[in-house]
């Protein structure tokens, strides 16, 4: 075996590259690993560069983290070679490699992965399935605070081509800890010799890689951003999330809530792809439950048969009363579900919202009662008061039910979207029928 301090290092010193490559070909992997571990940074990088792709992959996985970092620094100006190395590694080896690296080095290397390997790596690194870590991209532009505007623009020209967005540039320290973000507009309008440190205020909004993706929707909405930085537990900048990614998440969440609101317990990604059996099973449970609920409406109506026989015109306005109650409830529930989902209201706001809903529903009921009273006055003036009062009370009850049910479901740790339109409509039907015929019996003395 050749000695580490003789042939290999001598060949490097003399620049005898062909002989060096030939010598490396005769060595096994453990010996090459030993030689590289005992070499300085320059020697390690040169030795590593003369390995074949397959040898480089095997050797790199066997090196200590500190020596891997040395080689990474040495290959900094040879990104294509390093990119091939990262993408060729086995997924579990690549993940173990990233876990051993400091956050700043891992972040730089993740930019070299192709989309599929990046997705696979973030998944294996342990980011929860619905976390920001699964959504972020490492393709962004970051600068140091000591850069001048001129240096920053040159840096952007050099590295900005592959960035997801150039609307915002991120400022980091030497350990890649996020300091601030700065709009490209502010950089362009500044003087060329201004320092980045003079343009920032150290106030920024960032997401944690372990935050839930729905949290990002709220943050984007609150701060009106096109992109947000993603950091780890110590503030190291790992990547960014852009507004188009958040739109996709929001669309998926809205679709899921819409399906649940329509009384389908689980969201169906594509009805075209879903089987008949799947669609049947997801809908029949709710519909059968609502049939049972609606039986109560029929029972109440049958209980007032004598009232209906005495004043047949009551039947004419019954569908109008119960439909108005259900529509008002569904409308109110839709607004509350959206507000809860988007985080616009909290559980503690229910009392304030209840008082407001009472007033709003009263005004709605009175307005609708004025309209129906014109019809009742023409067709059945003897029950005009009953119809008008029933309209006011039914609309109020339906609206209040629609507002409260999402809060109740949330308190019970159920999805508020489960307070679906058919459920609210069915309950409103029962209440509307009860109010209508009870008022008729009392007012008409029947």
The averaged pLDDT comes out at: 78
Looking at the structure, the CATH topology of the largest domain is Tetracycline Repressor, domain 2
Cα gyration radius (Å): 34 Å
Shape: elongated
Stretches where pLDDT is under 50 for at least 5 consecutive residues are 1-6, 261-269
Question: Quick one: biggest sheet?
Answer: 3 strands, mixed
Determine and state the CATH class of the largest domain.
Answer: Mainly Alpha
Q: Roughly how much helix do the residues carry, as a percent range?
A: 55-70%
Q: In DSSP terms, counting alpha (H) and pi (I) runs of 4 or more, how many helices? A: 20
Can you count the beta strands? 6
Strand content: 5-15%
What is the chain-wise order of helices and strands?
Answer: HHHHHHHHHHEHEEHEHEEHHHHHHH
The total number of structural domains is: 3
Which secondary-structure class do the elements indicate?
mainly alpha
CATH architecture of the largest domain: Orthogonal Bundle
What does this structure look like?
- The protein is mainly alpha-helical and 446 residues long.
- The chain has helices spanning 4-14, 17-25, 29-37, 41-49, 53-62, 65-74, 79-88, 91-100, 103-110, 115-124, 149-159, 184-189, 213-223, 243-261, 276-303, 305-310, 314-342, 350-379, 384-411, 421-444; strands at 142-144, 168-172, 178-183, 207-208, 227-231, 237-242.
- Helix 13 packs across helix 14.
- The protein folds into 3 domains: 4-126, MgtE N-terminal domain-like (MgtE N-terminal fold, Alpha Horseshoe); 142-242, Roll (CBS-domain), CATH 3.10.580.10; 276-444, Tetracycline Repressor, domain 2.
- The radius of gyration is 34 Å and the shape is elongated.
- A hairpin with a 5-residue loop joins strand 2 (168-172) and strand 3.
- Helices cover 65% and strands 6% of the residues.
- It contains 20 helices and 6 strands.
- The N and C termini lie far apart (113 Å).
- The strands form 2 sheets. Strands 1-2-3 form a 3-stranded mixed β-sheet. A 3-stranded mixed β-sheet has the order 4-5-6.
């Amino acid at each position: 075996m050749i000695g580490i301090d003789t042939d290999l290092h001598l060949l490097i010193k003399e620049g005898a590259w062909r002989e060096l490559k030939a010598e490396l070909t005769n060595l096994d992997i453990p010996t090459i690993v030993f030689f590289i571990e005992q070499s300085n940074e320059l020697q390690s990088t040169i030795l590593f560069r003369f390995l074949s792709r397959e040898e480089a992959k095997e050797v790199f996985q066997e090196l200590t983290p500190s020596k891997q970092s040395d080689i990474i620094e040495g290959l900094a100006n040879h990104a294509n070679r390093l990119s091939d190395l990262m993408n060729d590694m086995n997924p579990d080896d690549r993940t173990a490699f990233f876990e051993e690296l400091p956050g700043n080095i891992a972040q730089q290397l993740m930019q070299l992965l192709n989309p599929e390997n990046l997705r696979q790596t973030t998944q294996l690194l342990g980011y929860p399935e619905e976390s920001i870590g699964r959504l972020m991209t490492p393709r962004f532009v970051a600068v140091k605070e000591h850069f001048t505007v001129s240096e920053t623009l040159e840096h952007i020209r050099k590295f900005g081509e592959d960035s997801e967005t150039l609307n915002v540039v991120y400022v980091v320290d030497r350990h890649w800890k996020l300091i601030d973000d700065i709009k490209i507009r502010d950089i362009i309008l500044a003087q060329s010799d201004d320092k980045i440190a003079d343009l920032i205020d150290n106030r920024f909004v960032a997401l944690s890689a372990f935050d839930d993706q729905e949290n990002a929707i709220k943050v984007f909405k609150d701060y009106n951003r096109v992109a947000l930085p993603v950091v780890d537990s110590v503030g190291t900048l790992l990547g960014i999330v852009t507004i188009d990614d958040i739109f996709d998440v929001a669309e998926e969440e809205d679709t899921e809530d819409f399906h649940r609101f329509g009384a389908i317990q689980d969201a169906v990604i594509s009805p075209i792809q879903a089987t008949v059996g799947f669609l049947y099973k997801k809908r029949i449970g709710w519909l059968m439950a609502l049939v049972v609920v609606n039986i109560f409406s029929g029972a109440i109506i049958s209980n007032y048969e004598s009232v209906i026989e005495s004043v047949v015109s009551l039947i004419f306005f019954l569908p109008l009363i119960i439909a108005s109650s259900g529509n008002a409830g569904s409308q109110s529930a839709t607004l509350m579900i959206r507000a809860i989902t988007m985080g616009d209201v909290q559980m503690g706001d229910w009392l304030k919202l209840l008082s407001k809903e009472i007033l709003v529903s009263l005004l709605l009921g009175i307005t609708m009662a004025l309209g129906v009273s014109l019809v009742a006055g023409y067709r059945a003036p003897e029950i005009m008061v009953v119809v008008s009062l029933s309209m006011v009370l039914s609309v109020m009850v339906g609206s209040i039910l629609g507002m409260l049910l999402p809060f109740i479901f949330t308190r019970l740790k159920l999805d508020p979207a489960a307070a679906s339109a058919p459920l609210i409509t069915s309950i409103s039907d029962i209440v509307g029928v009860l109010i209508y015929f009870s008022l008729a019996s009392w007012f008409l003395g029947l």
